[in-house]
Amino acid sequence: MPDEEYKKLHPILNEVTQTYVGLYTNRPNEKNREKLIKLEALLHEKLEQLEKARNETE
Description:
The protein is mainly alpha-helical and 58 residues long. 93% of the residues lie in helices and 0% in strands.
């Protein structure tokens, strides 16, 4: 059955399938994004510590 015919006959099933395929395809990118968010939070924390230490010495 060609893709277009399948889409017409089973639109909901087709969308669910596409959603799952998209999730599994993009999963590695999501893990990288989560790591970057954690690193960004750590960076902000360290920058705040540096700023506090700099202000204490002045």
